[in-house]
Amino acid sequence: MKYQIIVNRKLESFGQFVTEGRDEINTTIVNGQDRPFIFGSKLRAVERRTIMNRVRKVLHNDCYLQVHEKGDSGISGLCLSCPACYLFGGTYAPGTGKKIQVNERSKVNYSEAYPFVGGGIRDVTFNAVDEQKNITGQALGVNQVIEPRDFINVVDVETDNEDWVKLLVWGIEHSSRYGANVRIYGQMKNEILGIIKSDKLEVTSYSLISKFVDSVKVKEHIEGLKKGVNISISDDGVDTLIKTLQASAEVQSLVKRRNPATS
Ligand SMILES: [Zn+2]
Protein backbone atom coordinates (compact mmCIF):
# COMPACT_ATOMS: atom_id res chain seq x y z
CA MET A 1 0.00 0.00 0.00
CA LYS A 2 1.11 3.55 -0.64
CA TYR A 3 0.69 6.49 1.68
CA GLN A 4 1.12 10.10 0.62
CA ILE A 5 1.77 12.67 3.33
CA ILE A 6 0.95 16.17 2.05
CA VAL A 7 2.90 18.76 4.01
CA ASN A 8 2.58 22.53 4.08
CA ARG A 9 6.10 23.65 4.88
CA LYS A 10 5.80 27.16 6.24
CA LEU A 11 9.11 28.94 6.01
CA GLU A 12 9.00 31.44 8.88
CA SER A 13 12.38 33.11 8.44
CA PHE A 14 14.67 33.61 5.46
CA GLY A 15 15.75 30.27 4.04
CA GLN A 16 18.97 29.41 2.21
CA PHE A 17 18.30 26.48 -0.09
CA VAL A 18 21.22 26.16 -2.47
CA THR A 19 22.97 23.33 -4.24
CA GLU A 20 26.39 22.36 -2.95
CA GLY A 21 29.06 24.45 -4.63
CA ARG A 22 26.60 27.09 -5.82
CA ASP A 23 25.48 30.19 -3.97
CA GLU A 24 22.25 30.69 -5.87
CA ILE A 25 18.79 29.57 -4.88
CA ASN A 26 17.38 26.73 -7.01
CA THR A 27 14.45 27.86 -9.13
CA THR A 28 12.09 26.33 -11.65
CA ILE A 29 9.29 27.58 -13.90
CA VAL A 30 5.73 26.95 -12.68
CA ASN A 31 2.79 28.46 -14.60
CA GLY A 32 5.20 30.81 -16.37
CA GLN A 33 6.70 32.07 -13.10
CA ASP A 34 10.23 31.53 -11.89
CA ARG A 35 9.79 30.02 -8.43
CA PRO A 36 12.31 28.97 -5.78
CA PHE A 37 12.09 25.34 -4.70
CA ILE A 38 13.62 23.04 -2.10
CA PHE A 39 15.17 19.71 -3.03
CA GLY A 40 13.43 16.77 -1.35
CA SER A 41 16.82 15.36 -0.34
CA LYS A 42 17.39 18.40 1.93
CA LEU A 43 14.11 17.81 3.74
CA ARG A 44 14.71 14.09 3.95
CA ALA A 45 18.15 14.46 5.56
CA VAL A 46 16.80 16.71 8.33
CA GLU A 47 13.85 14.46 9.11
CA ARG A 48 15.97 11.33 9.05
CA ARG A 49 18.30 12.96 11.59
CA THR A 50 15.37 13.95 13.82
CA ILE A 51 14.15 10.35 13.84
CA MET A 52 17.66 8.91 14.30
CA ASN A 53 18.25 11.17 17.33
CA ARG A 54 15.15 9.87 19.02
CA VAL A 55 15.87 6.25 18.07
CA ARG A 56 19.35 6.57 19.63
CA LYS A 57 17.83 8.04 22.78
CA VAL A 58 15.36 5.16 23.09
CA LEU A 59 17.44 2.20 21.87
CA HIS A 60 20.98 3.44 22.71
CA ASN A 61 22.15 2.12 19.33
CA ASP A 62 25.16 3.26 17.35
CA CYS A 63 23.66 4.74 14.19
CA TYR A 64 24.79 7.96 12.53
CA LEU A 65 24.64 9.49 9.08
CA GLN A 66 28.41 9.88 9.18
CA VAL A 67 30.92 7.50 10.61
CA HIS A 68 30.98 7.80 14.36
CA GLU A 69 34.31 7.39 16.14
CA LYS A 70 33.13 4.96 18.77
CA GLY A 71 31.17 1.82 18.06
CA ASP A 72 30.64 -0.76 15.41
CA SER A 73 28.71 1.05 12.72
CA GLY A 74 29.95 0.32 9.21
CA ILE A 75 31.71 2.71 6.87
CA SER A 76 28.41 4.49 6.18
CA GLY A 77 27.88 5.10 9.91
CA LEU A 78 24.48 3.43 9.74
CA CYS A 79 23.67 0.44 11.95
CA LEU A 80 21.20 -1.18 9.51
CA SER A 81 19.50 -2.69 12.55
CA CYS A 82 17.05 -0.02 13.68
CA PRO A 83 13.68 1.49 12.67
CA ALA A 84 15.32 4.57 11.05
CA CYS A 85 17.53 2.35 8.87
CA TYR A 86 14.58 0.18 7.83
CA LEU A 87 12.48 3.22 6.90
CA PHE A 88 15.11 5.30 5.08
CA GLY A 89 17.31 2.46 3.87
CA GLY A 90 21.05 2.51 3.37
CA THR A 91 24.15 0.39 3.25
CA TYR A 92 26.13 -1.30 5.97
CA ALA A 93 29.68 -2.14 4.93
CA PRO A 94 31.91 -3.01 7.85
CA GLY A 95 35.58 -2.18 8.04
CA THR A 96 38.31 -4.76 8.14
CA GLY A 97 37.77 -8.30 9.35
CA LYS A 98 34.09 -8.72 8.56
CA LYS A 99 32.52 -9.54 5.25
CA ILE A 100 28.81 -9.01 5.65
CA GLN A 101 27.43 -6.17 3.56
CA VAL A 102 23.75 -5.23 3.86
CA ASN A 103 21.74 -3.01 1.53
CA GLU A 104 18.25 -1.90 2.43
CA ARG A 105 16.06 0.06 0.01
CA SER A 106 14.26 3.16 1.19
CA LYS A 107 10.52 3.00 1.83
CA VAL A 108 10.27 6.80 1.71
CA ASN A 109 10.37 9.12 -1.28
CA TYR A 110 10.51 12.90 -0.87
CA SER A 111 9.37 15.16 -3.69
CA GLU A 112 10.71 18.65 -4.23
CA ALA A 113 8.82 21.35 -2.27
CA TYR A 114 7.30 24.16 -4.35
CA PRO A 115 5.77 27.49 -3.26
CA PHE A 116 2.44 28.92 -4.42
CA VAL A 117 3.92 32.08 -5.92
CA GLY A 118 7.11 33.13 -7.65
CA GLY A 119 9.71 35.71 -6.69
CA GLY A 120 10.64 36.30 -3.07
CA ILE A 121 14.36 35.83 -3.55
CA ARG A 122 16.75 38.45 -2.22
CA ASP A 123 20.40 39.01 -1.54
CA VAL A 124 21.38 39.52 2.08
CA THR A 125 24.74 41.03 2.89
CA PHE A 126 26.54 39.52 5.84
CA ASN A 127 29.67 40.28 7.78
CA ALA A 128 32.02 37.50 6.72
CA VAL A 129 33.62 37.37 10.16
CA ASP A 130 30.44 35.79 11.48
CA GLU A 131 30.47 33.08 8.86
CA GLN A 132 32.21 29.73 9.08
CA LYS A 133 34.36 30.54 6.10
CA ASN A 134 38.04 31.29 5.76
CA ILE A 135 37.50 34.96 5.28
CA THR A 136 38.94 37.33 7.81
CA GLY A 137 38.65 41.01 8.44
CA GLN A 138 35.60 43.06 7.65
CA ALA A 139 34.87 41.48 4.29
CA LEU A 140 31.22 41.41 3.32
CA GLY A 141 29.57 38.49 1.62
CA VAL A 142 26.18 37.97 0.04
CA ASN A 143 23.73 35.16 0.78
CA GLN A 144 20.90 34.57 -1.60
CA VAL A 145 17.84 33.70 0.48
CA ILE A 146 14.14 32.95 0.08
CA GLU A 147 11.63 35.13 1.91
CA PRO A 148 9.08 33.51 4.23
CA ARG A 149 6.37 31.63 2.35
CA ASP A 150 4.49 28.33 2.20
CA PHE A 151 5.83 25.34 0.26
CA ILE A 152 3.83 22.24 -0.64
CA ASN A 153 5.65 18.93 -0.47
CA VAL A 154 4.47 15.33 -0.83
CA VAL A 155 6.25 12.48 0.96
CA ASP A 156 5.42 8.97 -0.29
CA VAL A 157 5.74 5.91 1.92
CA GLU A 158 5.42 2.36 0.69
CA THR A 159 4.36 0.00 3.46
CA ASP A 160 1.50 -2.14 4.71
CA ASN A 161 2.24 -1.24 8.32
CA GLU A 162 0.78 2.14 9.29
CA ASP A 163 3.21 2.45 12.22
CA TRP A 164 5.94 3.46 9.75
CA VAL A 165 3.82 6.35 8.53
CA LYS A 166 3.31 7.32 12.18
CA LEU A 167 7.05 7.45 12.81
CA LEU A 168 7.59 9.60 9.74
CA VAL A 169 4.73 11.93 10.71
CA TRP A 170 6.41 12.41 14.08
CA GLY A 171 9.73 13.18 12.34
CA ILE A 172 8.13 15.74 10.03
CA GLU A 173 6.27 17.44 12.87
CA HIS A 174 9.37 17.60 15.08
CA SER A 175 11.81 19.03 12.55
CA SER A 176 12.14 22.80 12.30
CA ARG A 177 15.48 23.86 10.75
CA TYR A 178 16.33 23.32 7.09
CA GLY A 179 18.86 24.39 4.47
CA ALA A 180 22.24 26.07 4.92
CA ASN A 181 23.30 28.29 7.84
CA VAL A 182 20.55 26.97 10.11
CA ARG A 183 21.87 29.11 12.96
CA ILE A 184 20.24 32.10 11.29
CA TYR A 185 18.13 30.78 8.41
CA GLY A 186 15.62 28.13 7.54
CA GLN A 187 13.17 28.07 10.44
CA MET A 188 10.18 26.09 9.26
CA LYS A 189 6.87 24.97 10.70
CA ASN A 190 5.48 21.82 9.12
CA GLU A 191 1.74 21.36 8.93
CA ILE A 192 0.37 18.06 7.63
CA LEU A 193 -2.59 18.89 5.38
CA GLY A 194 -3.66 15.30 4.87
CA ILE A 195 -2.53 11.70 4.43
CA ILE A 196 -3.81 9.68 1.48
CA LYS A 197 -3.89 5.89 1.47
CA SER A 198 -4.14 4.32 -1.96
CA ASP A 199 -2.76 1.54 -4.14
CA LYS A 200 -1.42 4.22 -6.50
CA LEU A 201 0.07 7.70 -6.23
CA GLU A 202 -2.78 10.24 -6.22
CA VAL A 203 -1.06 13.64 -6.07
CA THR A 204 2.27 15.31 -6.69
CA SER A 205 3.56 18.51 -5.09
CA TYR A 206 4.06 20.05 -8.54
CA SER A 207 0.47 19.42 -9.66
CA LEU A 208 -0.92 20.72 -6.34
CA ILE A 209 0.88 24.06 -6.48
CA SER A 210 0.17 24.42 -10.22
CA LYS A 211 -3.56 24.04 -9.65
CA PHE A 212 -4.22 25.69 -6.28
CA VAL A 213 -3.51 29.12 -4.83
CA ASP A 214 -3.07 28.32 -1.13
CA SER A 215 -2.90 25.53 1.45
CA VAL A 216 -6.62 25.81 2.27
CA LYS A 217 -7.49 24.92 -1.33
CA VAL A 218 -4.97 22.07 -1.33
CA LYS A 219 -6.51 20.68 1.86
CA GLU A 220 -10.02 20.86 0.35
CA HIS A 221 -8.80 19.01 -2.72
CA ILE A 222 -7.20 16.23 -0.64
CA GLU A 223 -10.36 15.83 1.44
CA GLY A 224 -12.40 15.69 -1.79
CA LEU A 225 -10.43 12.64 -2.96
CA LYS A 226 -12.04 10.65 -0.09
CA LYS A 227 -8.93 8.57 0.39
CA GLY A 228 -7.70 10.22 3.55
CA VAL A 229 -6.60 8.41 6.69
CA ASN A 230 -6.11 9.87 10.15
CA ILE A 231 -2.64 9.13 11.42
CA SER A 232 -1.22 11.07 14.32
CA ILE A 233 1.24 10.48 17.12
CA SER A 234 1.95 12.38 20.31
CA ASP A 235 5.48 13.13 21.42
CA ASP A 236 4.86 10.92 24.48
CA GLY A 237 3.86 8.01 22.25
CA VAL A 238 6.89 7.94 19.99
CA ASP A 239 9.23 6.11 22.40
CA THR A 240 6.81 3.18 22.65
CA LEU A 241 6.32 3.30 18.88
CA ILE A 242 10.09 3.03 18.31
CA LYS A 243 10.29 0.02 20.65
CA THR A 244 7.33 -1.62 18.90
CA LEU A 245 8.93 -1.07 15.50
CA GLN A 246 12.27 -2.39 16.72
CA ALA A 247 10.50 -5.64 17.66
CA SER A 248 8.59 -5.78 14.35
CA ALA A 249 9.17 -8.51 11.77
CA GLU A 250 10.51 -5.90 9.33
CA VAL A 251 13.32 -4.67 11.59
CA GLN A 252 14.07 -8.11 13.06
CA SER A 253 14.61 -9.53 9.58
CA LEU A 254 16.99 -6.64 8.86
CA VAL A 255 18.84 -7.32 12.13
CA LYS A 256 19.19 -10.96 11.11
CA ARG A 257 20.72 -10.05 7.74
CA ARG A 258 23.07 -7.55 9.37
CA ASN A 259 24.20 -9.93 12.09
CA PRO A 260 23.42 -13.54 11.10
CA ALA A 261 25.69 -15.14 13.70
CA THR A 262 23.99 -13.77 16.80
CA SER A 263 20.32 -13.95 15.86
ZN1 LIG B 1 20.19 2.45 12.23
Strands, count: 11
Q: Separation of termini?
A: 29 Å
**Overall residue-averaged pLDDT value:** 91
| Global geometry | globular
Ligands bound to this protein structure:
zinc ion
Unreliable stretches covering 5 or more consecutive residues: none
Total helical elements: 7
Q: Into which percent range does the helicity of residues fall?
A: 25-40%
- Note the run of SSEs as H and E: EEEHHEEEEEEEHEHHHH
Strand percentage lies at 15-25%
Number of domains: 1
Q: Biggest β-sheet, characterized?
A: 5 strands, antiparallel
| Helix-strand makeup class | alpha+beta
**From the alpha-carbon coordinates, what is the Rg to the nearest angstrom?**
20 Å
Summed up, what is this model?
With 263 residues, the protein is an alpha+beta fold. Helix content is 28%, strand content 24%. The strands form 4 sheets. Strands 1, 6, 7, 10 and 11 form a 5-stranded antiparallel sheet that branches.
Task: Note the main attributes of this structure.
two-stranded antiparallel sheet, 11 strands, binds zinc ion
Describe this structure in words.
Strand 2 and strand 3 form a beta hairpin. The chain is built from 7 helices and 11 strands. Helix 3 packs across helix 6 (238-246). Strands 1, 6, 7, 10 and 11 form a 5-stranded antiparallel beta sheet that branches. It has a two-stranded antiparallel sheet with strand order 2-3. It has a two-stranded antiparallel ribbon with strand order 4-5. The model has no long low-confidence stretch (mean pLDDT 91). With 263 residues, it is of the alpha+beta class. The longest helix has 20 residues, at 40-59. The chain binds zinc ion. The site of zinc ion (ZN) has 7 residues, from helix 2.
